[in-house]
Design goal:
By secondary structure, the protein is an alpha/beta fold. It is built from ten helices and 13 strands. Strand 1 and strand 2 form a beta hairpin. Helix 2 packs parallel to helix 4.
Length: 311
């Protein structure tokens, strides 16, 4: 693989020119990327190909073209890989007649992990009090946490998590995010697919965005936004002289649009450094008070919106 933001230097998972089609439908098209220790967020609109890619990484689907390696081996040909690989699927892939404890114990036995880890896994996801209840009586959020516990009990080096926060309340989401960050700090590889952008931003070290089955962007949020040089930055400037400041900034090179509010100006510019340099001079000349200078589009949500808009 050639050097790019989509690949990492010491990968545990390698995806090389992978495509997957179902009859005439192309779900994933020529995707090359890799994953290593830490948390990587996998983003994309519904139908973008995220779940298909995750299923290929875990060996549940074969690639139509290209290759996938997990710890240097093809997961479809080397079942031993599954001792180091755990999946939390988006769908409710649980045995509802089992209790929460039995379900996590079953996952431990399948992976060859010590059953002694079960209590710790249940505590981590706050299911100890409900561990004796049948899983089919759990709420959606509780079933999601049971699936996470079943993955954690294996102590796998690589965790593939497809919408792991679905149905969980804010307290449980914060707890799971802290758990995922803790695993990453200990050298585990986590690939997290999610549509909850603010939460991905809190837990992911890097982001891969997939749109229409193709890799649309890779890197951290700031780097992805900086690479989108054809899209102007949006900056909100809070000031007591909004109209006068807007008029003064309108003639600046790189400024392509201005919106005026009661006490603020939103500037669209292709040259953010120049705006930051020139603004204090303009403010002094106008005797305008600037109380905030805030880029509005360096969040994951705004970057994702830009990428989808280009479809």
């Amino acid at each position: 693989m050639t050097s790019s933001p989509a690949v990492v230097p010491d990968p545990t998972v390698e995806v090389d020119a992978v495509s997957k089609w179902f009859g005439p439908k192309v779900a994933v098209s020529d995707v090359t990327c890799s994953f290593g220790p830490g948390v990587t967020g996998l983003l994309g609109p519904n139908g973008a190909g995220k779940t298909t890619l995750l299923r290929m990484i875990t060996g549940l689907l074969s690639a139509s073209d290209g290759s996938i390696r997990v710890l240097g081996r093809d997961p479809r040909r080397h079942p031993a890989v599954y001792r180091d690989l755990a999946l939390v699927p988006e769908e409710d892939a649980v045995y509802g007649f089992l209790s929460g404890r039995e379900y996590v114990e079953y996952a431990a036995r399948l992976s060859g992990a010590p059953v002694s880890r079960v209590d710790e896994a249940l505590r981590t996801v706050d299911l100890v009090a409900d561990a004796g209840r049948a899983v089919n009586g759990y709420s959606k959020g509780m079933r999601q946490r049971a699936k996470v516990a079943a993955a954690l009990v294996t102590d796998a080096r690589i965790l593939v998590l497809d919408e792991p926060l679905n149905g969980t309340d804010p307290v449980q989401r914060a707890r799971l995010i802290a758990t995922f960050r803790g695993l990453a700090s200990r050298g585990h590889t986590l690939v997290v697919s999610s549509h909850v952008l603010a939460e991905v931003e809190r837990m992911a070290d890097r982001v891969l965005a997939i749109v229409d089955g193709k890799l649309a962007a890779a890197g951290d949020v700031t780097a992805i936004r900086a690479a989108m040089s054809d899209i102007p930055y949006r900056v909100r400037i809070d000031t007591d002289l909004a109209r006068q400041l807007a008029a003064a900034l309108a003639g600046m090179e790189g400024v392509s649009g201005i919106e005026i509010g009661p006490a603020s100006v939103v500037v669209e510019t292709t040259d953010l450094p120049s705006l930051g340099t020139e603004l204090p001079r303009v403010a002094r000349r106008l005797d305008a008070r600037i109380t905030e200078f805030q880029p509005e589009d360096e969040s994951l949500e705004s970057v994702f919106r830009y990428l989808v808009r280009r479809r």
